[in-house]
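COURSE: Structural Biology Practicum
ASSIGNMENT: Worksheet 4, Part C
STUDENT ID: 0417
INSTRUCTIONS: Below are two proteins. For each, the amino acid sequence is given first, followed by its structure token string. Answer the questions at the end about the second protein only.

PROTEIN I
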Amino acid sequence: MKFVIAAFLLLDAVAAFSTSTPAFLKSQVSTTKLYGEYGASSTSFYTKTEKKDTYESLNDVLEEKCSDPKVRQVIKDMLDVCAEITEALRTALVTVEGSMNDFGDAQLSVDVIADNLIWDAVKRSSVIREGASEEDPIVRDVDEGGEGEFTVCWDPLDGSSIVDNNWAVGTMIGVWPKSTGLIGATGRDQVTSLVALYGPRTTVLVALDDGTYEFSYGCTPEGCQLPDGSWEPWICSRHKISISPDCKIFAPANLRAAQDLPGYKKLIDHFMENRYTLRYSGGLVPDVYQQFTKEQGVFANPTSEGSPAKLRLAFEAAPFGLLVEKSGGKTSDGVTGGSILDVQINSVDQRTALCIGSSVEVDRFNEMVLQN
């Protein structure tokens, strides 16, 4: 045993001082190739966001970037309920509630909790006149005082199929003015939209006058402590986000449609052959939200006869569409190739195909899949 140990120590010493590899180790070394530093993937995208000395509060940004005081109020009301949902998700178990929504899907406890919290919030709000939930797609009057200005539509907790894995999920909210209401309006008529992402942190994208901004909840960075020792509940973590026209990140939804649509299969092959990075969780919110943090990306969800549309226009596609287009990105309705924001909402539960993200890639989708 001592001889064996001594022999290995001698080999280590020789390897340390020798400029060549021992012959009997060459076959092992030649089979190991490292791609990128320390073997890390060369296709990963890490944050480039640098720490600031201080961060603006929600109120400061809204005063400067949102000219309509009533829109400011509805944004604050919706951010308040996103904070409540954050706290509820920290304590709630994911269980089947025993009820079903209007689409026949079994409701989870967290779905019901989130939906109830938002209904309570819209009923309390002084500026909301109507509300509609994806869980119960009927526009309901909530304006007891008669002074409400907005119709608010929401998906209370997108990602029911992945929330039990403790993966990131989210809330999507679209806000339409009294002048249009919802039915007969388009996504372009929205006065604002919000998308909340509940992960290790809670962050919310908000459409303001000049672009898309991100607000983070419950963070305690230096410079944000208030005189009384408390902290700003919401701070602005990203200003006027810009989505690059080109990208190397793709999120392909409804892959079953690739069996029916040769153009979609060709598009997926293009992504793979050109070494794009696949980032897809099966949750619409995290899969599109990454376009704002990485400042690039494309999400594609075409439809076919065998794989029909599932995304809801008013609850999902329109709110995200407004945020993406305000960030310089592009959207496709997956049928004509036109903007998803120009599709008229004819029913509360209207479904749609969707491609959304970096403009060059949305154009590629239109060309390959739709042949436009």
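PROTEIN II
(use this one for the questions)
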Amino acid sequence: CFSMAVLGSVLQRFLPNLLPTYASRSTACLRWLRRFCAGPGPEPRAVRALLSGESDRYGGVTVRHLPDQISESTFSSVLRDSLSQWRSDGRIAVWLYVPLAQCRLAEVAALHGFTFHHALRDMAVLSLWMGPGESRLPGYATHQVGVAVLWVCLEQSSVCVLSEKDSSCCGGYFTSKLLLVYVVWRDERAVVNEANGKVLVVQDKNKTVNAWKFPGGLSNLGENIGATAVREVFEETGVRSEFRSLLSIRQQHNHPGAFGMSDMYLICRLSPLTYDISFCTQECLRCEWLDLADLANTKDTTPVTSRIAKLLLYGLEKGFDRIDLSMDEVPAVYSGLFYQIYHRKTSSGA
């Protein structure tokens, strides 16, 4: 049988003599013949599929499902193309969920700069920071929360206590048992100027709603509550302050921003040492000193901020000693260690 090239050559030689003069010698006819002789063009380049990811409000992408039965070399190419696309889209971080059955792909991801963030049961989560400067990705949960219960008999002015069988402090009295819940530990702090009743607030850059809130952020590992409060306020607003008290605690389980873990949100009261604002443009849209009464009544805020603003107004009017949970440092039962305890002050100052 004829090949396409041979057939084209025959037609190009004899067809002009068989066609009418005008048609055979037309430019269009000759172009058609050349294309016919050249045969089919090259196959169109296949477009490689990208990894499917969910974008978040912080500028990150989360990939929860990897392709089944994919080789390491193919996954490396797909991951490279996906990272290139996400960088072009302005994404600054990638969260990659790798199941135990596909753990071989974690090594491939590591060659592209990913590191382990955490692992739980049969799933490892890898992360990659693609934004400017040092990574601002949050760490994983680090704390356990102990809950103590007091049974108080008002008629007899007595309290129920127990001695733990396995306690390292023999004969020590403890109330209730330990509830183990791994949490992400965060601080929000209200910097209050008691002289004029104004409070420092910000609008987060990465929130879907531009609501006024108190400056806040995650605690570093081994960092005390007060130290976190002072550090975060300065980093976000440029205002220096000192820790005064713990005001409130918010607890939320299955927190979307904490990898589905529980979230403990500690709200602190601070006093300003400086007043000039120089806020972080990477995290905040705006930062201002607002009147507490205005903050308590505005609709442009979050429910927790509004409630704390009203609590602070009460403290300004009646005295902060009625709302403050002050901190004292006390020796722990473990030799050489100390812990911080927060509670309302009594009339004796204890």
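ANSWER KEY EXCERPT:
Q1: Residues 21-25, 43-47, 166-183 have pLDDT under 50 and may be disordered.
Q2: The two ends are 105 Å apart (CA to CA).
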